[in-house]
Specification:
The structure is a single chain. The protein has 11 helices and 10 strands. It is α/β, with parallel strands linked by helices and 334 residues long. The protein has 2 domains: 215 residues, Rossmann fold (3-Layer(aba) Sandwich); 109 residues, Rossmann fold (3-Layer(aba) Sandwich), CATH 3.40.50. Strands 1-2-10-7-8-9 form a 6-stranded mixed sheet, with helices on both faces. It has a 4-stranded parallel sheet with strand order 5-4-3-6. The radius of gyration is 19 Å and the shape is globular. The mean pLDDT is 96.
Length: 334
């Protein structure tokens, strides 16, 4: 039962993830940075299909697809999309067909990027992979494929990029509620929850799940400027509150994004990301990915160095998974 957001208990849900995921201290990293006390929410340990945050959203999105009688799910992302990998696996587990629309949007990547990592796992699930140019409007392409499948007698269900619809976003509120409950159990009052923000659903879910606590959420941008990202988060937050008939006051939650760590663009390595990935591995034996969590932790590290948190503060970093993508960025870690 979800005390903070009882609407969760009214949504159709397919159990996929292993939860609640741990909230663990990172004492050696905290010492290396001179404070504050850093904790990591281990959503890389959700278990299903190599772990990651998308499983939480897919529990409700696949639940909605099954309720609609769908036999095919369609979604989109970059070639190494973690969301695509978990959607394909969820479809395989439940006997659905899956179509992945994958954009070749990250330039100057290695041959491995175009063949291995998440792409290898997608192929193993039997997903139908449609590669399209970076300029493709994926929403229009998914709609076109849905029409194609309908003409072939299928019943398609379209899942937006990143699973970031109101239903998907609300699914991630479970993680926010877990952080609140685990923090209370540990006697913590986090000064902030920090995570990588891209398609907006994770940030909206965290905002809703943590709303009753007043703990601020900071999204570290991986693809868009601050103003654009904050506007998109606010728009999805408003849609989620309206469509799922939540308390209207929730649409006014403060939204913060930090866009200083994108570097040359989405999926492109940066010195800060490389340092963050190395520090997490060297200090805590924790493996991040180069696209999301590496840049997310780079953002937290810089904010600590800027003195935004006191040494005795506690800060939660959300590890949203993505390990398969690390293996196709080996040239970034010589």
């Amino acid at each position: 039962m979800s005390a903070a957001l009882p609407v969760l208990d009214r949504l159709d849900r397919v159990r996929l993830v292993h939860g609640p995921t741990p909230l663990e201290a990172m004492p050696r990293l905290s010492d290396r940075l001179g404070g504050p006390r850093i904790y990591v929410k281990r959503d890389d340990a959700t278990g299903f299909a190599a772990g990651g945050n998308k499983g939480r959203k897919l529990e409700y999105l696949i639940g909605a697809a099954l309720k609609a009688g769908a036999d095919t799910v369609i979604t989109a992302g970059a070639l190494q999309t973690n969301h695509g990998r978990q959607t394909a696996a969820a479809a395989a587990k439940l006997g659905l067909k899956c179509v992945l629309v994958l954009t070749d949007a990250v330039t100057d990547r290695s041959p491995a990027y175009h063949a291995s990592g998440n792409l290898l796992l997608d192929r193993l699930t039997g997903a139908e992979i449609r590669r399209v140019p970076a300029s493709t409007n994926v929403d229009e392409e998914m709609a076109r494929i849905a029409d194609e499948k309908k003409r072939a007698g299928r019943i398609p269900y379209v899942i937006p990029v990143g699973g970031s619809s109101p239903v998907g976003a609300l699914g991630y509120a479970v993680a926010g509620e877990e952080i609140a409950e685990q923090s209370r159990a540990l006697g913590l009052r986090p000064a902030a929850v920090v995570h990588a923000t891209g398609s907006c659903g994770t940030q909206v879910g965290l905002l809703l799940g943590l709303a009753a606590t007043g703990i601020p959420v900071t999204g570290v941008c991986v693809s868009r400027p601050k103003d654009d990202q904050e506007a998109r988060v606010k728009a999805l937050l408003s849609r989620t509150v309206g469509e799922l008939q939540l308390d209207a006051k929730l649409a006014m939650l403060a939204v913060e994004a930090d866009d200083r760590f994108i570097g040359p663009g989405y999926g492109q390595p940066t010195p800060g990301m490389i340092e963050a990935v190395r520090l997490a591995a060297e200090c805590e034996g924790l493996f991040l990915d180069p696209v999301y969590t590496g840049k997310g932790l780079a953002g937290l590290i810089q904010r600590i160095r800027e003195g935004r948190y006191r040494k005795d503060d506690s800060v939660v970093f959300v590890h949203t998974g993505g390990l398969p993508g690390l293996f196709v960025y080996d040239e970034a870690f010589p």
